[in-house]
Amino acid sequence: MTKTTTESERLLGLEDFYRKQLLESTIPFWFPRSYDREHGGYLLMRDADGTLIDDDKAIWIQGRAAWMLATLYNTVEKRPEWLEGAKLGYDFLNAHGFDTDGRMFFHVARDGSPIRKRRYFFSETFYIIAAAAYAKASGDEHAARRAREVFGQCIAYRNDPNLLPAKFTGLRPAKGIGVHIIMMNTAQQLRETIGDPRCDELIDDCIREIETFFVKDDIRCVMEQVAPDGSIIDHIDGRTLNPGHAIEAAWFILHEAGYRNKDPRLVDLGCRMLDYMWERGWDDRHGGLFYFRDVYGKPVQEYWQDMKFWWPHNEAIIATLLAHLVTGEERYARMHREVHDYAYRHFLDTEHGEWYGYLHRDGTVAQTAKGNLFKGVFHLPRQEWYCWTIMKSHGK
Question: Cα–chain-centroid distance for residue 224?
Fold first, then answer.
């Protein structure tokens, strides 16, 4: 009699699949051809076949790529080309990423000449994790010191937004979930590479903010922004949800639960967040996750609201895997199968490697770019690396 494979067995059988995709499809698409040996950093704005479509550089994407390369060196194999590549990005960020006020640019030309700077400090957070991972890989004490210095600056920005350029709020001030999500994961990465005594307290505070103000159990939802008292702002911007972003926050919290010996409170919180936003974000007709939804089911302003972007699916693949591993519940293995199968059927380019970034609602490719100012060497390789790593660890 043939033994029926359970969803859990099927999921854990994907360990080798993620390893192969990472090392034989995703990373080879980018490197070594994206190393900019003339100006430093990486040339990442590429079409489906790897053709360069623009030689500008997004600072946060440069940081993400440097982090990925250093992380591969630290955790997979000490390949000299990965360490050399991480240094290429780290050195470029130091030479061209910072303005005279100590804040980082968002968008620069190939040679590092500044083009654009934004109010938020996400470029800085990716510098931190890149510098910390590179410090661990290389033993560079200056890199470790810089990671901790910029981490301190970001803590200050989070605690006192007045340190950043003014943002006009008028009669409708709001607080967003994004800062707490990104600072939680920045602290997690710093803690896991070079360590910093501020990490645990900051992670606790970020989780407390998310749980207190943004998770709405009464309507089974995670808000992107709320009024300062946590109430819902009943206007288009205030009602707009980003299911993939909340699911990313959910897996950061589930990761933290695992770090804390499956802390039951964090397991419950992370799973609730995943459940709520899967219910709101999953497209029952065509599959995949919608990009935006309205909390009350009203029309969403952004015209791409029903498109399928690559990165929410990377986050959902991780979140469903973690939810299954920490709870043992088969339903999370089934959810993982749904999102994994959808993503690798529709986003993966089997000819050239890597994923397309943008699909229409029906799953057809909307445009062919693999890299731009927002997509690069991060969400997909992080997902494949993380899933492979956590499955390998779980099997021991």
Answer: 16
